[in-house]
Amino acid sequence: MKELEKLAERRAFEAGDLILREGEAAEHFLVVLRGAASVRLRLEGGRSVRLATIGPGSSIGEMALFDGGVRSADVVADEATICVAFG
Predict the structure, then answer these.
(1) pLDDT tens, residue by residue, 24-75
(2) Separation of alpha carbons 46 and 32, rounded Å
(3) d(CA 17, CA 79)
(4) Between vectors from CA 85 to CA 3 and to CA 80, what angle results, nearest 5°?
(5) What's the rounded Cα separation, in Å, for the pair 31 and 10?
(6) pTM
(7) What does the H/E/C string look like for the chain?
């Protein structure tokens, strides 16, 4: 665990903050320690739809990182959220 902690960067987000943006390059993934975030897909006309809610212990952004691609959806903090980033 101590070795993993050396690789991790703690990040804090407030409600409404954009954690990951659809289309951006995947350079890291995050694990939620506290709080909650929504995975949202942008639709035509400026609307978006919530695909999932992520809570403590869940990872965010790992799929695009391991595929070497880009983010497929936005992730927005629903409340004050603390994550650790690896990458």
Answers:
(1) 999 899 999 999 999 999 999 989 999 999 999 999 999 888 887 899 999 9
(2) 27
(3) 9
(4) 125
(5) 10
(6) 0.88
(7) CHHHHHHCEEEEECCCCEEECCCCECCCEEEEEECCEEEEEECHHHCEEEEEEECCCCEECHHHHHHCCECCCEEEECCCEEEEEEC
